[in-house]
Amino acid sequence: MGRSAQHSPEWRATNRRKCRSLANTAVFPREPLARMRESRGDVMSVTADESQLVLLAGDQVAPLLEPDAVLDAVRRSFELHSAREGRVFPLVREKLHTGGIFGIKSGDVPKADLLGFKAAGFWPANRELGKEPHQATIVLFDPHTGRPLCIIDGNAITTLRTGAAGAIGLTLLARPESRSICIFGTGTQGRIQLRLALREMPGLDTIHYLTADGRPDAAFEAAFEDFAPAHSNQAAKAVGSSDIIITATPGSGPLFPPEAVRPGTHINAVGADTQGKRELPDGLLRRVRLFADDCEQSAAVGEGQWDTGCRATEIGDLLTGKMPFTRDAADITVFDMTGLALQDLTVAEMLWRQARSRAQERACHGAGNAGETGNDDRPFVQCAERHIRRRRPWRRRFARCLRRHVARGRGRCGSFRRNPEDRPSCSHRTKCSCSRSPGYRHRRRGCRKTGTIGRDRTVSMSKPARRHQGGPGGWPKPIDQ
Predict the structure, then answer these.
(1) Is the pLDDT reported for residue 377 higher than 90?
(2) What's the pLDDT tens digit per position in 262-274?
(3) Strand, helix or coil at 202?
(4) Coil, helix or strand for 19?
(5) What CA–CA distance (Å, rounded) separates 16 from 65?
(6) Regarding the domain with residue range 54-157+344-357, which homologous superfamily does it belong to in the CATH classification?
(7) Where are the chain's structural domains?
């Protein structure tokens, strides 16, 4: 068959059908393609199309979470709540017959078109199975249509946003000259609270910690070995010698006597978030200045439920300046952290935008034409056609090229050139400034229009080499042809 017959419309149409079938089934099925993309660790369930539902699994969420960005998002949630620009819907928090606790926190920010909820809970039996007892899932919706926009594994978000809220409370309420800290609980939340406390309060140099079973936690000590944490079995002594106290336990009862707290101490109370839970002793709230993320939640499910006569101030009012705050040296301050739905929504929105931005970048690099996402059949079909047209063992080479481009995150196969050993190989084209057409790229040898020299060969080529490359005069065709 001559070259003219190979390039006839009938020949191209016939082989296009064959190649499309091959790309879908014979050489490289679609499911293995998806698994290869997922194995790269990218957020491959995200597309640049806004109409697509974004799914972020647990191992995909953690790389997107940056402490500074989460701190800004949580701070924004407090400010929105203080200005009443963000609404918090009634809290759902119920005990289950399995011994777990299930709850839903929801809300919206009308001006930002932000709507969603977090379904979360605590399953203590998961520890025996080697799993995380706290489980959470966050869903964002389009407030205009009700269509879900994003579903995110909320475990990492809950952990870090709660730690960020505690860090904000420390910077606003604790004495800047604080040197020692006492923490109850060495689990996931206790560690993130302590890590961010050390980050935001650089003067801290002494750590006391207490565990539920009264035994030292070697893993906890190894995580903070630079500060040499000291284990203690005497809660009153550890509390009395500390400037900052963090309680991050399941909230099964008071952790220390009220008289152990000395003047000038600040307390972050994290564990009480359900009716019946508590960590602080009776009578302490009447001696302190109480702050909360939400006053109604604090009185319903937080530490405020144990002393209804104690009045709280919302932490967002301090950030917005609605409530001036001056701390006296002898003041005892308590930040009751029950968790706001707005905290989860602002952090989830940040991750959703980051994921879509990365998907758009990937679509830009993986598709030659505007509007392509790099996941259709055209790149694979064109790749196979090139191999067939050049009379190569195209089945084997097509599969190899396809694996290579999927692994690199690119949806289109480049042209074929001869390497220094005169063996055909696949290489991506490089961009040129001639802008011949949208998405136009040249091979490495250069561009005849602008006289650009390629990376590994000059513009001038031998006649056989030009004939091998194909196209008018040996120069490449635009990608969109």
Answers:
(1) no
(2) 999 999 999 998 8
(3) coil
(4) helix
(5) 44
(6) ornithine cyclodeaminase, domain 1 (3.30.1780.10)
(7) 1-40+375-413, 54-157+344-357, 159-336, 423-481
